Amino acid sequence: MMVQTTTSLLIAAAFATVASALPATTDSVKRAGGPAIVPIPATCTVTSPLPDSPTTSYIPSPSTNNILLYSAYYPSFSTNTTAMAEQCLQQCYGYGTHVECKTAFWAENLVVPAGYYGTPGGQLSTGCLLFSQALTSSDFVAAPEGQATDAFAGTIAC
Fold this sequence. Notes:
Elements: H1 2-21, E1 45-47, E2 58-60, E3 68-74, H2 81-94, E4 103-111, E5 124-131, E6 140-142, E7 149-157
Antiparallel strand pairs: 1-7, 2-6, 3-5, 4-5, 4-7
């Protein structure tokens, strides 16, 4: 009888340990990784808020930092900059329930901010920035020479 009780207790303890290690199924737990890449429906429109200048590159001004939802900095994974910019825009649409992200900004040669994943920052990288409000041309400033190359910004309205 004592062996059966001990065995039952060991099994119960093992089950409790394993059950507590299983992933939580609550919305309050943030998941790892970036927003899903979701195609934008044809019923939505995408407009560019970037200032119109063929010789100047632009970056979001520091005043937009408080509406930044998400940022990712990474080495370019393709020579097709259009496809990479489109993926960033589709991540904007895929953020949350398709209404939280209003504008996506993508460019190569962006300065990685200090503290990004514990790094000192300062190096140039490809970046995708997602914003909770629609940006306008007044939300951008001229980028330093050689930065924000091939910049793209898109505001999604559905």
